[in-house]
Each structure stands twice: as structure tokens, then as C-alpha cells.
Amino acid sequence: MSEIDFNITIVGLGLIGGSFAMALKELNIKNLWAVDIDTNVIKTAEDMRIIDKGYTDPETPLQNSDIVIICLYPNLTLEFIKENMDSFKSGAIITDTAGIKERLIKEVDLVLRKDIEFIGGHPMAGREYKGFEFASKEIFKGANYIITPTNKNSRGNIEKIELLIRRIGFKRIIKITPQKHDEIIAYTSQLPHIMATALINSDEECDTNSFVGGSFKDATRVARINCDLWTELLINNGENVLAQIESFEKRLGDIKRAIIDNERDALKALFEKGSLKREELI
Amino acid sequence: MSEIDFNITIVGLGLIGGSFAMALKELNIKNLWAVDIDTNVIKTAEDMRIIDKGYTDPETPLQNSDIVIICLYPNLTLEFIKENMDSFKSGAIITDTAGIKERLIKEVDLVLRKDIEFIGGHPMAGREYKGFEFASKEIFKGANYIITPTNKNSRGNIEKIELLIRRIGFKRIIKITPQKHDEIIAYTSQLPHIMATALINSDEECDTNSFVGGSFKDATRVARINCDLWTELLINNGENVLAQIESFEKRLGDIKRAIIDNERDALKALFEKGSLKREELI
């Protein structure tokens, strides 16, 4: 594979940042640097040779990076950009990986220098565990990646980010507005986590372990989450999330009504609709 | 492995009945017969040598079977027992695999001859596909099995059924009353299917495929179901299912309220509770 003639810095070597480092390292990036507050993680990443060098102070790598990939929680992403605005290289592209976009992009926009661009990104990949020790480039393979460019982004820079995303294993890149991203993600990502949590928290007195089959295990898998991150994501996307919960409550109400009214045909039709939709899901 | 000195008939060579045949065949059962309305399935099972002989007319195998395992939908299970009450061998044990127990066992009790026993059973194993072609003894490996004996069952007969269940790969056998079974299963099995269906039916206008990650896929896996069977299970266990839906709605309400009130700590506490419960699930 040909060399990619950029210097890249990853900010935050957690699950996502670590996975980026592992995946990017295989592309022969000109220089791949990382910033983290944890010197142990930096040392491990250097020893594994998945980064060329790690820093706790971002100044040097930012001054020399063509692309900066921020892999922090949403609020910290904004803070990092604000605090280091003077350090970015002229012409740099900053991208992020936060699971919510509208408010973040608006706030970045208020502070962004005119000679750099911010392109919002959201890898639809993750694990139920957090931290560098669970990082793996495999989580990106075949997954979807959403980017939310705005009219402030140049075509050339969008293409550079798209190239990188494809080269590290993502299958499909979807471009939508930050607003639309937050609406849709409230349904496809945030609602499943809420359902899993509400479901597992509904147990009352029984020894659940003895009575579960695969259905309960799968339906609750993502109740095992990074609680700080998900609290932040849901609070910051509250309006969209509440709309999705209400839409879900209506569909749950359909099933409830069919059971109360003993309407076999109506209940079966709801299952058939869902079954077909699930079958169509790749 | 030593021979098991019983004649056994499996009624219904679908996903569960076929899996039973495959698993039992390895135990050197004295004779393993099957009853099905589909002659093609019978021929396939005979050709595969997972049964000794198959029948469309149950009379002969029932007259000679010490154990009869009924692998039909709940309503058909009852119908089959009623219609063939005169054919069972004296001293036989009938067991079933239906996902609901209280009403079924009461109704069986009304028609059961005094010289035979019925022991309710529920293998906590399945797949999102139905039919013999998806049968596999692997689905039983390590799974839970619930039996719901009553005071009409003798210890010796319960032990015979338990022995069989363990020998075909189930890890844990739980004995509870039919009433308790239906209450608990409404939560651990029926509610996850309802959630998955309501979740996947909540999509409004988006191309869901492009925006889903693993969380949505897992949370909706069991929306792909046997719609006839699940309609019957839920209608027949309506009261317990509605109680569980209401309990779930309360827990969903907790999350909603925390988001509406912008209560980060309360929301995080709910996630932490769920995360810990999920971690404890084996």
C-alpha cells in the first residue's frame, strides 16, 4: 500500500483512538503521533509501535499535523479544540469521533480559526468495554462511518478524510448534516442502549441468570456500557432521544393493545412487520 | 455411553423436535421414533438416521413409548394430547417443550389418564429460524431447561426426564411451578421479543441500514421470529406479559425523566445499575 503523505495526530488513546492507531499504522502514514494524559498508555503504544511517538503536551504534534483525529468524549472534544486553537498547523483538518454532532459543530464553529477546517465524524463501531486495552483495528472492519460536512468544508479535505476512513476498513461512508445525524443516531444507537438498560433494570425478584436464553442476553448486551460517555451523549442529545423514546412507546403500545384486546391477527401483523424489517437488515 | 432402556417418541420434527432427535440419537436410546404430518421431513430424518422410524399416524409409536416428547406449539400440544389420550402406553411419561405452562398443564390435567404422567418442560434454547432444516443439537449445549413438575408427578419420573435433559447437553435444570414459570418467562423471554419488535418497528423515515452498528443489530435480533408461535405464546400468557411491559415502562420512564430533568447523576446511576446487572449475567 502506498504511503499516505500526511502527519496525523490522534488525540486520546482509548478504545476508539487506540483502534485508529492500530489501523492507521498499517497504512504507512508519514508520521503518526498521539496525545494522551496517561503516560503508561503512551509508553505501551510506543512499545507496540502503533504510534511513532506519544505526547502529553499536544503543542508539538499539533503544530506539525495535517490531520488531527480527536477521540475524546464530546465535551472534552470541544474543550480540547478550544484550548489548543493556537497550536494547530495552518491548513490542518480536525476531525472527531463523538457520537453527537449538531451542538458540538456549532460550538467548534464559534472558535475555529479561518485557516483550518473541522469535519465531524462518527465511526459506527465500538465495544462494551472502554480503554486502550480493548482497542482493536478489527472493530472497524465492515462497519459504517458517518461524516457530517458543512458548507465550510472543501471538497478536497472531505475526500482526504474519506480516503483514510476507507483505508482503515470501514465499508460505507454516509454524509449527512449534523442535525440529521443526531436525529437518526438517537434511534439507531441511543435508543437500543436505553432499551437494554430499561430491560435489565426491570427484573424484580427473580434469579434472572437461571431463566435467560439467547434473546435476553442479546437484547441486553449494550446495557454493559461506558456510563460516563453515554450519560453525556444522551443529555446532549436529549430532545432527539425523547422523541425517539416516544415513538418507541407508541409501537410498544400497539403490541400492548393487541394483547389486551386479544387481537391475534393484529399482534401477528406487528411481528410480521418487525420480522421482515429485521430480515432486511444487513 | 450406556444404552438408555426406553422407547422414546418425539412429536413434531421442527426446530426443537429435530434438535431433540439429533441429540437423543447419540445416547443409544432403545428405540427413537418420531411423529410428524410432513412425510418429507420423516423421510429426511430416517435417511439421516437420527430416528429409527417416523410415523404420520401416532398410534403405533405412542402405544410402545415410555417417554413422549411433544415439540409442537402450545395449542397443538394440548390438542395432540387430547386426541391421542387412548393411545399412550400405560406408565408413560409425556413431556412438552411449549414456552408457556400454567394453562396448558391445567387443561392437560383435565383429560389425563390416571396411569400416565405429564411433566411440563421448556428448553431455553431456540433460533430465529423455524423448521427441521435449522435443527441442531448444538443449540442445547450449555443452555438452561425449565421443568414444572406438580404434586401429581413421581420423583422417579422427574428423575428420568432430568437424566435425559442433562445427557443431551443442557447445563442447568430449574424446577419451578407452572405459574412461576409463566411469570418469569414473560420477563426473560417474552419481553425481549416484544422490545426487539417495538424497536425495529419504530423506524420512521430513515434508511436504517446505513446507520446501524452492533447495538441496534443485537437489540433487534429476536424481532426475526416465528410469528405464529410468538403470537400464540403472548396471547396465552397475556396477563403476565402485560405486567412485565408495565414494569419495563416504569424503568423506561426513569430514564426519560432523568433526560427531561437534565439529571446527569440520576441517569448515570441508572446506567451503572444496568451495566452491573449485565456484567453479572453469565
UniProtKB/TrEMBL annotation, chains A, B:
<dbReference type="GO" id="GO:0008977">
    <property type="term" value="F:prephenate dehydrogenase (NAD+) activity"/>
</dbReference>
<comment type="similarity">
    <text>Belongs to the prephenate/arogenate dehydrogenase family.</text>
</comment>
<dbReference type="Pfam" id="PF02153">
    <property type="entry name" value="PDH_N"/>
</dbReference>
<dbReference type="Pfam" id="PF20463">
    <property type="entry name" value="PDH_C"/>
</dbReference>
<protein>
    <submittedName>
        <fullName>Prephenate dehydrogenase</fullName>
    </submittedName>
</protein>
<dbReference type="InterPro" id="IPR046825">
    <property type="entry name" value="PDH_C"/>
</dbReference>
<dbReference type="GO" id="GO:0004665">
    <property type="term" value="F:prephenate dehydrogenase (NADP+) activity"/>
</dbReference>
<dbReference type="InterPro" id="IPR008927">
    <property type="entry name" value="6-PGluconate_DH-like_C_sf"/>
</dbReference>
<keyword id="KW-0560">Oxidoreductase</keyword>
<dbReference type="GO" id="GO:0070403">
    <property type="term" value="F:NAD+ binding"/>
</dbReference>
<dbReference type="InterPro" id="IPR046826">
    <property type="entry name" value="PDH_N"/>
</dbReference>
<dbReference type="InterPro" id="IPR036291">
    <property type="entry name" value="NAD(P)-bd_dom_sf"/>
</dbReference>
<feature type="domain" description="Prephenate/arogenate dehydrogenase">
    <location>
        <begin position="6"/>
        <end position="282"/>
    </location>
</feature>
<dbReference type="GO" id="GO:0006571">
    <property type="term" value="P:tyrosine biosynthetic process"/>
</dbReference>
<dbReference type="InterPro" id="IPR003099">
    <property type="entry name" value="Prephen_DH"/>
</dbReference>
<comment type="pathway">
    <text>Amino-acid biosynthesis.</text>
</comment>
<dbReference type="InterPro" id="IPR050812">
    <property type="entry name" value="Preph/Arog_dehydrog"/>
</dbReference>
